[in-house]
Amino acid sequence: MTLFIRVRLINTKNDKNELFAMKNFLIPPVSSSIEDDLQQKIDTKTKPPGSLGRLEKLAMQAGRIQNSLTPELNSPTILVFAGDHGITEEGVSPYPQEVTAEMVLNFLNGGAAINVFCRQNNLSLHVVDAGVKGELPEHPELISAKIGEGTKNFNKEPAMSTEECKRAIETGAELCRTIPETDCNVIGFGEMGIGNTSSAAALMQRYTGLPLEDCVGKGTGLDNSGLAMKEDVIRKALEKHAEIKDPLEVLATFGGFEIAMMVGAMLESAVMKRILLIDGFIATAAFLAASKIVPGIQQYAVFTHQSDEQGHAEMLKFLQAEPLISLGMRLGEGTGAAVAFPILQSAVAFLNQMASFESAGVSDRTDGK
Predict the structure, then answer these.
(1) Residue of 164, 174, 191, 333 marked catalytic
(2) Fewest beta carbons less than 10 Å away: which of 63, 178, 339, 366?
């Protein structure tokens, strides 16, 4: 159980203004020196070369991240970041904004899908109030790190100021330094926020340059007319902020507090050389933002599933990422990461526990083909 925590944000002063100093994220490259030894260990298991498919690639990735021939998955953790969005004023979601806070309470009471899958797979779960509108009651598993009472309506003005965005990023980084168990080396990211598919779609379009119709989906269940209206709202917002190109400014203009906080959490987790479990559309949009702000993060990422939300498949293609599973899920909350985690466990288990041809006394191939 994590105690109720209010994260203390630290400002630094300069000669002109009191501004937030964002951490400089220095992401180390994964090990290349161990790659040949890992490949030899994988290839000499009692199986035809390559016959375990993606599991072999996952084992290689885990070993390179940890620079180990015997990687481990310690204290696996899911962080769910929640925040409200001013863009809901435009009617882009069929659900009222109050659902964000109500679902956070559901998480805390253990009744959501993410709770079920975390219990099933022995994953620790922490819920972060990044910017939910209104006050949430204190709870042993709630981390209060509120940047504001939801973002502004980005159809009228930037969702947040640059300083707020930087503060959210650094808060996410601080959480990853302090909240999970100290030996945690695999961490997943989920979210909750009515309206956040609109933020994610706008971020996707601006970062990738793909047609907007490829980026906007039905979210929590819009009908066709609602989808057309949502696309129109986002198109007008993108036109209004057409001059915004800098990756951080893009995130501040169209993002949510929970998305920006995920960005910081992902970046700091990569600095700490953790395996990153990236969930669906919203989490991947946060990852896309993180990769634009600090290149080099992708080597630590495992894209756990392909969401059924319109846009996610194209975003994964843009990132040249291959998801582990595709089950037609589009819930968010980190559920894809939680459901796919046992696949990563299998990859590490075969690498560590499966016999080699030599140890098992089994004859290896002799034809060299």
Answers:
(1) 333
(2) 366
